[in-house]
Design a protein that fits this description.
Shape: globular
Number of domains: 1
Radius of gyration: 17 Å
Distance between the termini: 21 Å
Number of strands: 0
Structural class: mainly alpha
């Protein structure tokens, strides 16, 4: 279970780890502050949109989506519990892309599209598969646990 939450990673070059960290931090912060912050607490229009998707208890699901974006984005940026946060974010972005924006084109210059939801979905799946990498708080937890076992 511990491996699933904070997982290990294969050795990579320092440059690859720095690039991955930049991507993780930027993605997490943009999700949290560009999208999640406006949804916590969920505005009435967002709750209505969730209700329109047919979810029971739309206020609860609106809170879950908003917290997935805000708290999940912060956790991903920090590299803390990256895989669980990415799982919640991937589910949220999957619903956004393939339920809320189902009829929208993938790309659009003038109206709604599913592009951003799909982009965040792909990033969340990547973080779900890879974890935080070398420069995240999950790595600190991994190293502490390895140190505890050595004692």
């Amino acid at each position: 279970m511990y491996q699933l939450l904070v997982g290990g990673d294969e050795p990579r070059s320092i440059q690859a780890d720095i690039g991955f960290t930049a991507l993780r931090v930027a993605t997490g912060l943009m999700m949290a502050f560009g999208h999640g912050l406006a949804k916590v607490p969920p505005p009435a229009g967002f709750v209505e949109a969730v209700a329109g998707l047919g979810f029971p208890l739309p206020a609860a699901f609106a809170w879950a989506a908003g917290l997935s974006e805000l708290a999940g984005g912060v956790l991903i940026a920090a590299g803390l519990l990256t895989r669980p946060a990415a799982l919640f974010l991937a589910v949220t972005m999957g619903v956004a892309a393939f339920a809320q924006h189902w009829a929208d084109p993938l790309f659009s210059r003038s109206g709604p599209s599913k592009e951003m939801a799909v982009l965040y979905l792909v990033a969340a799946v990547a973080f779900l598969l890879t974890g935080s990498g070398r420069y995240g708080l999950d790595a600190v937890l991994r190293h502490r646990r390895v140190g505890e076992r050595a004692d």
